[in-house]
Amino acid sequence: MLLILLGAPGSGKGTISKELATKECFEHISTGNIFRNLAKQQTEFANNMKKRLDSGLLIDNQTTWEIVLDSFKWINFEIEDIILDGFPRNIVQYKHISKYLIDNQIAYKFLYFKISDEEVIERLNNRLYCPLCNRTYNKLNLKPNREWYCDDDNTELLQRKDDQLDSIQRRLDIYKKDTYPIIELIKDKKFFIEISADKDFQKIYSNVKEKIFDV
Ligand code: AP5
Ligand code: MG
Fold first, then answer.
1. Contact criterion met (CB below 8 Å) for 171 and 120
2. Ligand 1 lined by 10 (C-beta under 6 Å)
3. How many CB atoms lie within 10 A of CB 53?
4. Which atom of ligand 1 is closest in space to residue 93's alpha carbon?
5. What is the distance in A from the centroid of ligand 1 to the CA of 10?
6. SS percent in the chain: helix, strand, coil, step 5
7. Ligand 1 contact via 123 beta carbon (within 6 Å)
8. Which tens digits make up the pLDDT trace of 179-210?
9. Which of 59, 87, 145, 170 shows the smallest number of beta carbons within 10 Å?
10. Distance 96 CA to ligand 1 centre (A)
């Protein structure tokens, strides 16, 4: 099964993905994580990518689709459970993935994390992440056991450049303008599942599990 996660920045897509990967053996493909890794290289391409990521702007559709296709290369969709987190983010990207799903007869569900802007801003302002394993934490809740260090690999935690207020606002605007129309388009389809994402993490996780293994 392929689970495709939709939702505003900070709605908890990465946090739920990490839990499903650890506990239910899902393979987690995150376009944001792939781009952040690519942006570490010392090339002009990587530098340009880093500037766009830091300011909260999207990467172009062609580059993004090539990266998604590349990450699908090693996957056997008949036997593996996969999470696609961060794609699609606009109608062009939705058309790319829809055609691919039909052409390759892949079973899939879209999981939409619904959340308020106020909750997003508070969460992202307080987010920490592990640059080694990409696990996310929060200074207010979901704290690491040892302050500023990852529970899984003891790496020092960082804050994302795009978690500053101006970038958060830009990402929210882009989400509303470009990504939300996908939700409008598919909200009545059988493969669409809505999750209330402004609850306690454990409640959200059990809700997600119930919905994905049950429907
Ligand atoms: P990406 O990395 O996908 O960022 P995003 O969509 O902005 O989402 P986030 O990772 O910020 O939020 P999340 O939903 O994963 O929340 P999280 O679990 O971390 O993309 C980054 C950039 O890459 C884009 O801006 C763009 O430039 C580029 N990009 C990526 N995909 C692209 C595409 N398809 N096309 C073009 N460009 C693309 O949680 C957030 C915080 O909340 C954490 O602190 C967490 O601990 C906390 N939290 C989580 N759940 C709860 C809870 N239930 N209660 C309280 N706190 C919680
Ligand atoms: Mg994320």
1. no
2. yes
3. 20
4. 34
5. 5
6. 50, 15, 35
7. yes
8. 999 999 999 999 999 999 999 999 999 999 99
9. 145
10. 21
